[in-house]
Backbone:
C-alpha cells in the first residue's frame, strides 16, 4: 500500500510539473486542431486515413475511433516521445533525484511512476482527440449514431500499446547519457521509422499476401487493423478492390469512396498480441531499474560540469578567425564560433571530414546527401542556439552589456550561418561552376537552418521542435523530396527556404525579447 | 570625468500577478560601497536586477549620471559590472577562454582583451588556474570567475548580489579586501543578508524589508540609533523558549550559569538585564522589529 502511495505521489508531482506549463496546453490545443483536420469533409480533397488510396469509412463512432487510433499509433507515437521525454533528466539535473533516493521508494516504482506519467499525458491528448473526433462525427453528419465503446475500442487496442512503447523509449532515452540530447532525438526518429518500416514491410502494400489467420502484431497495430479491414471489407467490396492502408495525407482528385464501418470485431488472438506489446513496454521500463543509479550519477556529474564535452583546443581555429577579430563585432562572431566548435570531440571532426570528402568525390546525388549529413552534424548547435543563455544560466552575465540583447544573437546568427556554409564548403566549391542553382540552394538552406534554429528555440523554448523537423525533412529529402536535397530541384528548394526566411526573422524578432526576460 | 552617480526615484516593481517586490523606493548613491541589507524576499535582488538593466521598474526612474537607464540602458551598460546571485558558466571552457568570450560580448577592443583578461584573473587570484576547465572549479573559484567578469570593462558601477554565499571564510575575507580595493572612485552596491559582510566593507547602508526601504545612512548612524536598545541577560535554560517568544534575541550563548542572551528592545527585558553596546547585527534586528518591540 505504501509503495502504491509513493508511486502515486511521484506521478502526481510529475503531472503537476508538466500541466502547469503553457507548453502543455499549447500542445493540447494543437492536437485538438490537428485532430479536427484528420476528419475532412467529403469535398475537402484529401484523406488522412484511407484504404486503397481513395476509400474511407463513413464517419461513424467506429470509424472515427479507428482513424484516430491509427493516427495516434503512428504520429503521436513519434511526436509524443519528444513531448514527454526529459522528466528523468530533469530530476537528475535539479537533484530532486537525490531527495527521492533517500526514501524507501524502489527504483522500479520510480521508473514505473515516470512511465505512467508519460502514459497519463498521452491519455489526456487522446482524450482531447476523442472529444474532437466525436464532434467531427456529429458535425459531418454521415452517421450520427454514437457508440462510445466502438469509439474508444480502437484507441485502447491499437494506440495504448503503441504509446506504451513510446513511453518506454522515453524512459530509456533519458537513462542513457549519450541519448539525452540531440543525438537521442535524432536516433528516436530512426527507431520510429524502423518500426513503421517493419509494419509496412509486413503489410507489403498488398492485402492479398496477408495471412488473415496470423496473430502477428506490430507496436503500432497497423497489421492488426489491416488484417481486420481485409477480413471485413474484401467480401463486401470485392476481392480485387485495392486495400492498401495509408495513414497520412493522401490528396484526392475526386470525392472519396465511402464504405460503412459501424463496428470492429476483434479476435482474441489479436487482443493477446496487443496486450503482449503492453507487457513488453512495462517490462522494458522495469528492466531499466538496475541502471538507474549509474544513470543518475552520470547525469549529476554532467550537470555539475554542464559538460558539454571537454572539447579540443583548436589553435588552428584561432588562426583562421584572426582576420575576423579586427573589430568588436567580428570579435564577437569569432568568439561565438569558437564557443560552438570548442565542445566538439575529435570524432565529430572526423565525421565532418568524411562528409566533406564525400561531397567532393562521389556522384552528385550522393554528394547532396553528404551535404545533408554535414548539416545534421551541427544540428544541436542550430537547435540550441537561441537557448544557450537559458540553458547555461549566463543571461545575467551577457545581456547587461551595451547592445548585447540584439548584437549577440546577430553575431550568433552570422556564426551559425558561416558554420553551415563552412561544413558544406567542399560541395559549394564543387557545385559553384557546374550547378549554380544548387550552390545558391546550399547557401540559402544554411542561412535558413541558422535563423529557424534561433527562431524556433525562442518560440518553443525547446530544441526538440527544430530537431524533429530537420530530422524528418532530412529523412524525406534523402528519399528525394526537394526539402534539403539540393540535387533534386535545387531552384524550388532554395526558393521556399528563401521565402520562409522573413517568417523566421519575424518569429525571432517577436519571441527573442520574451525569452531573454525569462532566461 | 565627473564622479558617477546613481539616483533611484520612487521606484516600484510589481510582478505580473500583482505581488509588489519593490515599493516606492528612493536612494541616492555616490562613490563608495553601499551595503544593501535585508531578509530573504526583501526585494534586494529585484532592485539589483533593475540596477543591472535586466528588469525595468514598473514605476519611477533610475538615473545613471542623470540619464534614465530604462530609456537608455547602454549609457549605464558601458560602465556596469554585475555579479548576479546565481549564474552559470560554459563548463567546457577554461577561465581564460570564458573571460575572453565575455570581453568580446562587452565589446572590449580586440587588442586589449588578452591583457585585460590577465589583469582580472590576477586580481581575483586565478592566474595559476586560468587554463583549467571551469567544470573543474570549486564553487568559490567559480564565484571568483564571476567577480573577474564583472571587472572586465573596469566598471564605474559594480553591482554584486549575495557575492559571499558559498565562499569559505578565507575566500570571504579575500573578497571583502578586493571590494575595499575596488571602491575608490567607483560606486559599489553590495547586496547581502550577511551582516558581517557589510560591517567589514560598507561605507553606506540601506536596509530593505518587504520591498520597502527602512534605513538609508551609514553603519555608524544605524549603530547610534540602536544605542540603548540592547541588553545582555543570563537566564535558566528551561526559560529559553518562553523568552524567545516574548523578546527579540540577537544571539544566545550557553554558559555554566545559564544561557547568556543579547536582547534587542526599547526597554530592558528584566531588572537583571544589563545594557550592552550594540553591534550591527543588533542594530539591524532592532530596526526591523522596532514596530513590534
Residues:
Amino acid at each position: 500500500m505504501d509503495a502504491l502511495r509513493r508511486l502515486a505521489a511521484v506521478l502526481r508531482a510529475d503531472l503537476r510539473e508538466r500541466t502547469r506549463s503553457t507548453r502543455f496546453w499549447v500542445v493540447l490545443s494543437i492536437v485538438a486542431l490537428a485532430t479536427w483536420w484528420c476528419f475532412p469533409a467529403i469535398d475537402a480533397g484529401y484523406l488522412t486515413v484511407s484504404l486503397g488510396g481513395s476509400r474511407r469509412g463513413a464517419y461513424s463512432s467506429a470509424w472515427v475511433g479507428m482513424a484516430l487510433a491509427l493516427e495516434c499509433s503512428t504520429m503521436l507515437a513519434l511526436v509524443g516521445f519528444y513531448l514527454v521525454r526529459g522528466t528523468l533528466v530533469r530530476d537528475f539535473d535539479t537533484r530532486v533525484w537525490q531527495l527521492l533516493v533517500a526514501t524507501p521508494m524502489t527504483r522500479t516504482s520510480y521508473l514505473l511512476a515516470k512511465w505512467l506519467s508519460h502514459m497519463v499525458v498521452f491519455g489526456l491528448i487522446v482524450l482531447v482527440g476523442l472529444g474532437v473526433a466525436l464532434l467531427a462525427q456529429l458535425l459531418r453528419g454521415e452517421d450520427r449514431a454514437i457508440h462510445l465503446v466502438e469509439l474508444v475500442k480502437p484507441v485502447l487496442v491499437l494506440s495504448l500499446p503503441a504509446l506504451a512503447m513510446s513511453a518506454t523509449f522515453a524512459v530509456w532515452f533519458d537513462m542513457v547519457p549519450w541519448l539525452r540530447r540531440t543525438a537521442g532525438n535524432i536516433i528516436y526518429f530512426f527507431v520510429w521509422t524502423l518500426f513503421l518500416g517493419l509494419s509496412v514491410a509486413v503489410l507489403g502494400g498488398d492485402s492479398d499476401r496477408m495471412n488473415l489467420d496470423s496473430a502477428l502484431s506490430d507496436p503500432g497495430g497497423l497489421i492488426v487493423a489491416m488484417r481486420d479491414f481485409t477480413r471485413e471489407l474484401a467480401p463486401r467490396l470485392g476481392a480485387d478492390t485495392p486495400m492498401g492502408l495509408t495513414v497520412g495525407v493522401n490528396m484526392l482528385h475526386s470525392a472519396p469512396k465511402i464504405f460503412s464501418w459501424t463496428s470492429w470485431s476483434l479476435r482474441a488472438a489479436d487482443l493477446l498480441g496487443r496486450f503482449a506489446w503492453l507487457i513488453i513496454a512495462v517490462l522494458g521500463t522495469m528492466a531499466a531499474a538496475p541502471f538507474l543509479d549509474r544513470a543518475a550519477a552520470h547525469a549529476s556529474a554532467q550537470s555539475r560540469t554542464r559538460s558539454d564535452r571537454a572539447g579540443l583546443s583548436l589553435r588552428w581555429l584561432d588562426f583562421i578567425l584572426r582576420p575576423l577579430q579586427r573589430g568588436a563585432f567580428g570579435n564577437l562572431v569569432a568568439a561565438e564560433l569558437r564557443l560552438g566548435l570548442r565542445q566538439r570531440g575529435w570524432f565529430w571532426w572526423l565525421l565532418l571530414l568524411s562528409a566533406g570528402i564525400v561531397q567532393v568525390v562521389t556522384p552528385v546525388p550522393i554528394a547532396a546527401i553528404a551535404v545533408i549529413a554535414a548539416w545534421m552534424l551541427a544540428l544541436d548547435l542550430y537547435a540550441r542556439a537561441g537557448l544557450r543563455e537559458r540553458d547555461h544560466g549566463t543571461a545575467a552575465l551577457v545581456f547587461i552589456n551595451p547592445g548585447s540583447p540584439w548584437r549577440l544573437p546577430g553575431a550568433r546568427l552570422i556564426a551559425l550561418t558561416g558554420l553551415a556554409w563552412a561544413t558544406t564548403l567542399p560541395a559549394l566549391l564543387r557545385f559553384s561552376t557546374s550547378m549554380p542553382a544548387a550552390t545558391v540552394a546550399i547557401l540559402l538552406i544554411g542561412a535558413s537552418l541558422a535563423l529557424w534554429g534561433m527562431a524556433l528555440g525562442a518560440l518553443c523554448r525547446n530544441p526538440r521542435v527544430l530537431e524533429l523537423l530537420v530530422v524528418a525533412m532530412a529523412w524525406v529529402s534523402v528519399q528525394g523530396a526537394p526539402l534539403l536535397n539540393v540535387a533534386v530541384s535545387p531552384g524550388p528548394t532554395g526558393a521556399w527556404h528563401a521565402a520562409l526566411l522573413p517568417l523566421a526573422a519575424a518569429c525571432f524578432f517577436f519571441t527573442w525579447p520574451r525569452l531573454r526576460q525569462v532566461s | 570625468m565627473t564622479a558617477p552617480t546613481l539616483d533611484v526615484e520612487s521606484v516600484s516593481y510589481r510582478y505580473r500577478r500583482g505581488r509588489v517586490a519593490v515599493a516606492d523606493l528612493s536612494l541616492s548613491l555616490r562613490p563608495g560601497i553601499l551595503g544593501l541589507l535585508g531578509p530573504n524576499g526583501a526585494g534586494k535582488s529585484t532592485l539589483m536586477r533593475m540596477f543591472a538593466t535586466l528588469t525595468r521598474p514598473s514605476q519611477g526612474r533610475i538615473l545613471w549620471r542623470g540619464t534614465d537607464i530604462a530609456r537608455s540602458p547602454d549609457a549605464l551598460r558601458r560602465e556596469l559590472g554585475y555579479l548576479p546571485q546565481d549564474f552559470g558558466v560554459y563548463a567546457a571552457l577554461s577561465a581564460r577562454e570564458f573571460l575572453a568570450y565575455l570581453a568580446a560580448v562587452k565589446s572590449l577592443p580586440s587588442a586589449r582583451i588578452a591583457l585585460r583578461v590577465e589583469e582580472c584573473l590576477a586580481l581575483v587570484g586565478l592566474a595559476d588556474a586560468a587554463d583549467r576547465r571551469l567544470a573543474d572549479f570549486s564553487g568559490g573559484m567559480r564565484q571568483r570567475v564571476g567577480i573577474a567578469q564583472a571587472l572586465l570593462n573596469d566598471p564605474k558601477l559594480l553591482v554584486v548580489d549575495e557575492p559571499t554565499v558559498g565562499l569559505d571564510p578565507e575566500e570571504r575575507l579575500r573578497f571583502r579586501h578586493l571590494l575595499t580595493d575596488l571602491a575608490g572612485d567607483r560606486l559599489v552596491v553590495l547586496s547581502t543578508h550577511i551582516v558581517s559582510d557589510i560591517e567589514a566593507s560598507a561605507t553606506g547602508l540601506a536596509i530593505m524589508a518587504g520591498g520597502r526601504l527602512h534605513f538609508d545612512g551609514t553603519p555608524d548612524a544605524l549603530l547610534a540609533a540602536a544605542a540603548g536598545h540592547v541588553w545582555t541577560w543570563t537566564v535558566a535554560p528551561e526559560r529559553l523558549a518562553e523568552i524567545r517568544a516574548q523578546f527579540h534575541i540577537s544571539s544566545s550563548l550557553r554558559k555554566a550559569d545559564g544561557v547568556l542572551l543579547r536582547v534587542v528592545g526599547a526597554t530592558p527585558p528584566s531588572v537583571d538585564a544589563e545594557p550592552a553596546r550594540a553591534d550591527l547585527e543588533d542594530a539591524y534586528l532592532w530596526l526591523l522589529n522596532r514596530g513590534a518591540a
Summary: The longest strand of chain B covers residues 20-29.
